[in-house]
Design a protein that fits this description.
- Helix 2 packs across helix 3.
- The protein folds into two domains: 61 residues, Orthogonal Bundle (Arc Repressor Mutant, subunit A); 182 residues, Rossmann fold (3-Layer(aba) Sandwich).
- The longest helix has 15 residues.
- The strands form four sheets. Strands 6-5-4-9-12-14-15 form a seven-stranded parallel β-sheet, with helices on both faces. Strands 1-3-2 form a three-stranded antiparallel β-sheet. A three-stranded antiparallel β-sheet has the order 10-11-13.
- It is α/β, with parallel strands linked by helices and 259 residues long.
- It contains eleven helices and 15 strands.
Length: 259
């Protein structure tokens, strides 16, 4: 796709940003070919981008900084695969019975579950601000919020206080999400998640993992749980064969093809 020589610098910079949002990186050669400009002009564009935005210069081009690619960019994740998440959340909510006490994890998929809770006299324990907002006007739900330090970016309560308060509960069921599920376990992006998730699974009769197809065979920075800690996996599509074999070995209930 050729842009033509008449495009001014500001227009080129907008196009470069659009390209980076989709492809992460862009080479100097690609800029020259795409915009039909000289290498000197492309270099001037790079200088302006790196001076005025969070774009970083690389050997031979530019790239999105790690800030823009963080897995914890909660708002972007909630917008992505929203139909999958809603379907999974609706299915998960059907497992909650009257008078049960449950834990709802900080997760965009688990958050979608909150609106579908129809059982009577449920007690929901959570440290997710978004989940609390969903539950606020539901008369069938009692809400317990784990205290602690507010993570403003991802909108949840964290830290020592939240962990200590968590230990006061025993749950009928817990519903957790994960950015990565492999044959050897359940993965998360941050070390703090390890301790919190390991504590949660000690205090329940049943662990439900909600994960859409994009999380399968994805490994993140920290392994929190082995698959033997999980009782039920709910997902939107058939899982890869390697995962299905391990899930069967551990006797995990697998609910797939959720629409």
């Amino acid at each position: 796709m050729k842009m033509g020589e008449s495009m001014n610098q500001e227009e080129r910079l907008i196009k470069i940003m659009d390209y980076l949002n989709e492809h992460r990186t862009m080479s100097l050669k690609m800029m020259c070919e795409l915009f039909q400009v000289s290498r000197d002009t492309a270099r001037r564009d790079i200088v302006k981008l790196t001076n005025e935005t969070t774009i970083i210069r690389t050997h031979g081009g530019v790239a999105l900084s790690s800030f823009h690619r963080k897995i914890s960019d909660y708002v972007n994740r909630e917008e992505k695969e929203i139909e999958y998440k809603i379907s999974i959340g609706k299915q998960a909510a059907s497992f909650v019975g009257d008078n049960e006490i449950i834990y709802l994890d900080v997760s965009t998929t688990v958050n979608c579950m909150a609106s579908f809770l129809t059982a009577s006299n449920i007690t929901v324990v959570t440290n997710s601000i978004d989940t609390v907002n969903h539950l606020m006007d539901m008369e069938n739900v009692n809400i317990h919020i784990l205290g602690g330090e507010l993570n403003k970016h991802s909108r949840y309560m964290a830290g020592f206080s939240a962990m200590e308060k968590l230990k006061d509960y025993h749950f009928d069921k817990v519903f957790i999400g994960s950015p990565g599920l492999t044959e050897d376990g359940v993965y998360y992006a941050y070390e703090e998640d390890i301790h919190f998730k390991r504590q949660i699974v000690k205090q329940t009769n049943g662990v439900f993992l909600l994960a859409d197809e994009t999380k399968m065979n994805q490994r993140q920075n920290f392994k929190a749980l082995s698959l033997e800690s999980i009782d039920t996996i709910i997902t939107n599509d058939v899982i890869p064969g390697n995962l299905e074999r391990v899930v069967k070995e551990y006797g995990i209930e697998l609910i797939t093809g959720v629409k």
